[in-house]
């Protein structure tokens, strides 16, 4: 909906809200003190209680089925219903929340039984994650990291032919606001011939887009690239915390293990494909000489409309900043346009061997860095592997994260003529390692 034709909501805080206007309506799972988690929708500074709305009989038909599924303590069943149910619920919600709604007087009369102040609610993981796969589609990140280890050949030969990924640990995915304990593990100190054990000294963040899977596929049946987009239920922000020193020792020959499995943070709101429709764009043209994707990874419509234009931001706040009352400092400004592969290509590739995806599976895009230092999505890149310091406004410096540091991700879509769409925040504060 364009800004000129975008109707207002009777929920006044939604009008002009940078994240949660009537054009967004992301879904999540929340609770209030003493109550069980249940599904809700972000609208302005409030959460629209889907359980209360269902009890009041505010939905009909396909929208009623979708609302009931989305009102549960996890969104897995709702994700499984697919795009038609999601669209029906979105249309019904916009009809209820618009300023001219025929139900306005009744809805306003329900008060806090229907609308809960967001700052008085606790957010939970939106869905039960059965499987988690982390990809590596940020080509500038791949180049930047590759140069640290292979200056003359940063990208391995397979990178431009296949969406690289690895299977992560679903049990340690947590929602924004949860603390992150510094991991212990083996590292090989510089100049040493044998490893030592202890807390990671090179703890890092990774700026990623999270992709929630909706409808799955039967085992043995690949999802065609032309249908892959229909299997995506929504998007979030994802921080794939990384212990770089553990990773350097363990990753050969099978890739990340303990260096990644200790924590992954996600933002609590699921932004739907429908809300992001105005911000779709063409996949960036591949540089001359790059191979065209193999046929199972290539779809002309996906190349023209399969990318997303989302601005991504990373902020850092240290304990000293909090003590001095200083705000978090932005250290990165990047974009999802730095993805070498589209989301549909990731889905198609993941299933091409017959692997079955399930509702609530989660993908991470991989770190989405740009070409400049201030657009890098990890401290590994910003500090050139710890060789350069990041100077902070507080007078402190960082090469990697220290105890008490908090990393904050934000994201927003903006386009002239359209209401902005935001993702909320993905936060995590580092705690000392266990002794």
TrEMBL record:
Binding positions (Ca(2+)):
134, 206, 208, 240
- In what pathway does it function? Amino-acid degradation; L-phenylalanine degradation; acetoacetate and fumarate from L-phenylalanine: step 6/6
Annotated ranges, domain Fumarylacetoacetase N-terminal: 23-126
Alphabetical keyword list: Calcium, Hydrolase, Magnesium, Metal-binding, Phenylalanine catabolism, Tyrosine catabolism
The protein's matches in Pfam families, at most eight in alphabetical order, are given as: FAA_hydrolase, FAA_hydrolase_N
A Gene Ontology biological process term: L-phenylalanine catabolic process
Asked if the keyword Magnesium belongs to this entry, the reply reads yes
The residues that the entry says bind Mg(2+) are 240, 260, 264
Q: Which domain of life is it from?
A: Bacteria
Q: Which InterPro entries match?
A: Fumarylacetoacetase, Fumarylacetoacetase-like_C, Fumarylacetoacetase_C_sf, Fumarylacetoacetase_N, Fumarylacetoacetase_N_sf
Instruction: Write down the required cofactor(s).
Output: Ca(2+); Mg(2+)
Q: Which residues bind substrate?
A: 136, 150, 247, 251, 367
Query: According to the UniProt entry, what is the EC number of this protein?
Result: 3.7.1.2
**Entry GO MF terms:** fumarylacetoacetase activity; metal ion binding
Stretches for region Disordered: 180-200
Where in the numbering of this chain does the Fumarylacetoacetase-like C-terminal domain appear? 140-430
Q: So where's the catalytic machinery, residue-wise? A: 141 (proton acceptor)
Q: Could you tell me what this protein is called? A: fumarylacetoacetase
Q: Which organism is it from?
A: Stutzerimonas stutzeri
Gene symbol of the encoding locus: fahA
């Amino acid at each position: 909906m364009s800004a000129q034709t975008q109707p207002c909501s009777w929920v006044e805080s939604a009008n002009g809200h940078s994240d949660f206007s009537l054009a967004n309506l992301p879904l999540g799972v929340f609770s209030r003190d003493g109550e069980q988690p249940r599904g809700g929708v972000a609208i302005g500074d409030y959460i629209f209680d889907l359980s209360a709305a269902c009890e009041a009989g505010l939905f009909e038909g396909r929208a009623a089925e979708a609302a009931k599924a989305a009102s549960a303590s996890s969104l897995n069943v709702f994700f499984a219903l697919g795009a038609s149910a999601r669209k029906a619920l979105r249309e019904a919600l916009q009809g209820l929340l618009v300023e001219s709604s025929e139900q306005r007087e009744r809805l306003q009369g329900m008060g806090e039984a229907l609308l809960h102040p967001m700052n008085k609610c606790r957010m939970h993981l939106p869905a039960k994650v059965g499987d988690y796969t982390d990809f590596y589609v940020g080509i500038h990140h791949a180049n930047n990291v590759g140069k640290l280890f292979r200056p003359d050949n940063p990208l391995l030969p397979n990178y431009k032919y296949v969406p690289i990924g690895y299977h992560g640990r679903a049990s340690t995915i947590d929602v924004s606001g949860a603390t992150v304990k510094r991991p212990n593990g083996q590292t090989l100190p510089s100049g040493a011939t044998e490893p030592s054990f202890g807390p990671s000294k090179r703890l890092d963040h990774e700026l990623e887009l999270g992709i929630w899977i909706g409808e799955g596929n039967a085992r043995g049946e690949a999802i065609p690239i032309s249908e892959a987009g229909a299997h995506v239920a929504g998007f979030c922000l994802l921080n794939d915390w990384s212990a770089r020193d553990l990773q350097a020792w363990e990753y050969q020959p099978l890739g990340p293990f303990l260096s990644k499995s200790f924590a992954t943070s996600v933002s609590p709101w699921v932004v739907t494909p429908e809300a992001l429709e105005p911000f779709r764009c063409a996949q960036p043209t591949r540089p001359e000489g790059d191979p065209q994707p193999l046929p199972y990874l290539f779809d002309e419509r996906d190349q023209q409309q399969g990318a997303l234009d989302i601005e991504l931001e990373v902020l850092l706040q240290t304990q000293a900043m909090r003590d001095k009352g200083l705000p978090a400092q932005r250290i990165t400004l990047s974009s999802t346009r730095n993805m070498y592969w589209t989301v549909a290509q990731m889905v198609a590739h993941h299933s091409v061997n017959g692997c079955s995806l399930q509702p609530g599976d989660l993908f991470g895009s991989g770190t989405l860095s740009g070409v400049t230092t201030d657009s890098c999505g990890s401290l590994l890149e910003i500090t050139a592997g710890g060789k350069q310091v990041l100077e902070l406004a507080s007078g402190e410096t960082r090469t990697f994260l220290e105890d008490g540091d908090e990393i904050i991700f934000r994201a927003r879509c903006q386009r002239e003529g359209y209401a902005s769409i935001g993702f909320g925040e993905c936060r995590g504060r580092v705690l000392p390692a266990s002794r």
